[in-house]
Structure formats: structure tokens, C-alpha cells
Write a structure and sequence with these properties.
Strand content: 5-15%
Bound molecules: pyridoxal-5'-phosphate
Largest sheet: 7 strands, mixed
Shape: globular
Number of domains: 2
Strand order of the largest sheet: 1-7-6-5-4-2-3
Radius of gyration: 21 Å
Number of strands: 12
CATH class of the largest domain: Alpha Beta
Structural class: alpha/beta
Distance between the termini: 17 Å
Helix content: 25-40%
Number of helices: 12
CATH architecture of the largest domain: 3-Layer(aba) Sandwich
Order of helices and strands: HHHHEHEHEHEHEEEHHEEHEEEH
CATH superfamily of the largest domain: Type I PLP-dependent aspartate aminotransferase-like (Major domain)
CATH topology of the largest domain: Aspartate Aminotransferase, domain 2
């Protein structure tokens, strides 16, 4: 049908046709994803209308940023969209790790304990918490940490969690997305069940959800099922590909107050922090986020079904309902990982001529390979692939500002594997 256009990109007819066969079976699922996007779009628009968003809110502020209405209204819109009492959404939050470090650090005191009932947290949080010794970690400040692993990488160890909660437990951190692990991503419903269980044992414990990569994938967010704080990065889902920097923390007023005083300074809190003229892209990105996320979810499902058919282990599998935008594909060799990433890179609108190579990235334990050709540097709501170069050689694939670009990237990843003889051709019929 459309092969004519793909011909110029270097995608072979064999790869293209294989993609079309896979897509035929995905029509129903894509319709469901569009319906979720529609629902979430209405949530965002309603919040913008309720807060009477207007052109005045797009004005740049500099210096201290006192009375920055644009900044304050964006925070109201976030809090109304995610149904929380308060929100902190700012360019001064530099990334997801920073947002999480603020949310954690602000809400504990020396002698308190943090519990992760869902196994090991995201790599960069190991240093924040002090699981790996690091300068300035919470461990250095006398905050201890406990972890209860999932059973079979999937189910909560309720008995273990019950035993782990003690008089010191102040905050429970729950990571929605699997990150660089091959466990399942938690559904919002499942997160709700976990929070309920924890609160029954200790009602005053703060439940924080690392919501990175999860925003707008479902119709509800963890804040709808009892989370006291949800935390994420604006160069992922809620930035919609337009926010050039930033993070958010939405939740209970008292928790957010703590975060604000930690982020700026005691006594200053949310009153300072100029928007530096990027506030319009933060609004506009949030407005686009539900549809951008839908495109990314379609890409993840397409990739899962392609690589599953080719005999690779994919997490999640091609059939299951999605709770984040990440797709892991276990490629089984460094060679295949590199070819996959080369494909993603060469399909990018930016830096398509660059060849990705593994490197020792700060905050990560192993060499990491990353493919991304993004308008916003490091943005992973844009089509990107990355992963630590170690067993099982899993590449984590995510993003795509448009479904059409995600499709091209996935076909191109396969094209590279196909050209190098790294896939079983017989499975492509
Ligand atoms: C990306 C991510 C983070 C860290 O966000 P950065 O913006 O990379 O610092 C934390 N947790 C999860 C689950 C993530 O996916």
C-alpha cells in the first residue's frame, strides 16, 4: 500500500510486508488506545478551562519569579488533571531523578526508613537512596532503606511487606514502570491494592509512586487510587515532547509543601522560581501528551508483536494491556542490541547519521547503549532505545512523538537486524 514511501528510507519490501501483516491484527487494540487518549485529552482540557488558561499565562518571568501566574496556573492544571490537592511542576526540577530525590528527601527525616515493596528501584535511585554508596545519599543523612522483592517478578510478597513495615517506616516508594528490569509494569489498579494493604498496616505512611513513563497510558493515575505523591519527568510522557526540561510532583498538600521547601529553601517554598520563558511549551506539551502517549503505546505494541513473532522474548508480551510506554526486547547478544539501536537512530529526524555506541553513563552501573535522535536532548518520549549491555541483552524501547515515526523506527530496527543476518527470515512470512 504505502511501500512507495518507505522505499526511500531503505526499508526492504520484505520487512515492510512483515510489518503490515503484524499490523492487521492490531486494529482493535489501536482503537482502544485512541479511546484512552480521547478520555485523557478531555481531562487535560477540562483542567485548562477550569483554571481559565489564557495568553497571559505564557509570559516569561525572570529573576526570583515572585507572583509568576503562569507557573502557578500550570501547577493548578496539573493538580486538577491528576486529582490531587497540590502540585510542584517546574523547570527547576531538572529531571525525573531530581523530582524523585526531592520527593523522597523532603518527606523523610534522620532515623526514618524508606521501603520499596516492589523490588529494586530505578538505577539512578540507588545512589539517591544510598543502596550504592554515593555522596549526599539519604543513607548519609541517616535514612535507612528496606526492600521486598516481587514474587516471581510479578506478585506482591504481602507477608514480606507486612514484616518489613516497622515503627521507622515513613515512606513507601512504588515504581510503576519496570525500568531496566524485566519484571512486569504495575497497573494502576494493582498499585491501588498495594497502597490499600500498606495503609491498613500503617495508615500514616506516605505512599509515593514513581510514575515515570506511566502518565496517560491508562484512564486513571496512581493518585486516583490512594497515592500520596506521584512523581515524574517532563521529558517523558507529560511533557508531550515539547517541554524542554522539568519534573513534577503532585499529591497531598503537606507532602508537596515539604517538597517545595526542599526544592528551593525553607521559608521560600513555591513562591520563587522564574519560568524563564519556557512555560508555554510546558502547557502545550501537557495538552498534547495524551495523544503523544497513545502513539508511543502503539509503537510499543507493534514492536512487541514484531519481535515476538521473530522468536524473541518481549516484556510485556504482544497481547497484554499496557501500563507504561516501555517495551523490552531480549535480543540475546550485544551485536543484535547494537543493530537494533542503529535502526532506531537512523530513523530519527535529528542525528540520523550518528552511530550509537555503548558507554559508561553517569548514574548507571554497566555500559549503556542509547539510540535517540531527539528535538529535546535525552527526551525519551521521543523515539529512543537503550539498555545496559549485559545479559539478557535487553533493549528498552520507548516513545515516538507520532505513531508514524514509531512505526518507521521499529521497521528500521528490524531492517538492520535483517541486513546483518541476525534474524530468522523464515519467521517473516
Ligand atoms: C526515567 C526514569 C527515572 C529517572 O528519570 P530521569 O529523567 O532519567 O532522571 C526514574 N524512574 C523511572 C521508572 C524512570 O523510567
Amino acid at each position: 500500500m504505502n511501500y512507495e514511501g518507505y522505499k526511500k528510507t531503505g526499508i526492504s519490501e520484505k520487512v515492510y510486508n512483515f510489518g503490515e501483516i503484524i499490523l492487521k491484527d492490531l486494529e482493535e487494540r489501536f482503537k482502544e488506545i485512541d479511546e484512552i487518549a480521547e478520555y485523557n485529552q478531555l481531562k487535560v482540557i477540562s483542567a485548562m478551562q477550569k483554571n481559565r488558561l489564557s495568553a497571559n499565562h505564557f509570559m516569561a518571568t525572570t529573576g526570583y519569579g515572585y507572583n509568576d501566574e503562569g507557573r502557578d496556573n500550570l501547577e493548578r492544571i496539573y493538580k486538577d488533571t491528576f486529582h490531587t490537592e497540590a502540585a510542584l511542576v517546574r523547570p527547576q526540577i531538572t529531571c525525573g531523578t531530581h523530582a524523585l530525590a526531592v520527593a523522597l528527601g523532603a518527606n523523610v527525616r534522620p532515623g526514618d526508613e524508606i521501603l520499596s515493596p516492589v523490588g529494586k528501584p530505578y538505577d539512578t535511585l540507588e545512589e539517591v537512596i544510598g543502596i550504592r554508596d554515593s555522596i549526599g545519599s539519604l543513607k548519609e543523612w541517616g535514612v535507612s532503606y528496606r526492600q521486598v522483592d516481587l514474587i516471581n517478578n510479578a506478585d506482591f510478597d504481602y507477608e514480606g511487606i507486612k514484616n518489613a513495615i516497622n515503627e521507622k517506616t515513613k515512606l513507601v516508594t512504588i515504581q510503576r514502570s519496570k525500568g531496566y528490569q524485566t519484571r512486569e509494569t504495575l497497573s494502576v489498579k494493582k498499585i491501588g491494592e498495594l497502597i490499600k494493604f500498606v495503609k491498613e498496616i500503617k495508615p500514616d505512611v506516605i505512599c509515593m509512586v514513581d510514575n515515570c513513563y506511566g502518565e496517560f497510558v491508562e484512564k486513571i493515575e496512581p493518585s486516583d487510587v490512594g497515592a500520596d505523591m506521584i512523581v515524574g519527568s517532563l521529558i517523558k510522557n507529560p511533557g508531550g515532547g515539547l517541554a524542554p526540561i522539568g519534573g513534577y510532583i503532585c499529591g497531598r498538600q503537606d507532602c508537596i509543601d515539604q517538597c517545595a521547601y526542599r526544592l528551593s529553601a525553607p521559608g521560600l517554598g513555591q513562591e520563587v522560581g522564574a519560568n524563564l520563558g519556557i512555560i508555554q511549551s510546558m502547557y502545550q506539551g501537557f495538552f498534547l501528551a495524551p495523544t503523544v502517549v497513545a502513539g508511543a503505546v502503539k509503537g510499543a505494541i507493534f514492536a512487541a508483536n514484531i519481535y515476538e513473532k521473530l522468536g524473541f522474548k518481549v516484556v510485556p508480551d504482544g497481547k497484554v494491556t499496557r501500563h507504561d510506554i516501555i517495551q523490552a526486547v531480549e535480543l540475546g547478544s550485544a551485536e543484535r542490541m547494537i543493530a537494533f539501536c542503529e535502526g532506531i537512530q537512523s530513523a530519527a529526524p535529528v542525528d540520523s547519521y550518528v552511530t550509537p555506541v555503548p558507554w559508561a553513563m553517569p548514574g548507571y552501573d554497566d555500559d549503556v547503549i542509547m539510540a535517540a535522535g531527539a528535538f529535546i536532548q535525552g527526551s525519551s518520549i521521543e523515539l529512543s532505545a537503550d539498555g545496559p549491555v549485559k545479559e539478557p541483552y535487553a533493549v528498552y524501547f520507548q516513545g515516538g512523538l507520532t505513531w508514524n515515526h514509531a512505526k518507521l523506527g521499529i521497521l528500521m530496527s528490524l531492517q538492520k537486524l535483517y541486513e546483518k543476518g541476525l534474524v530468522d527470515e523464515d519467521k517473516m512470512n
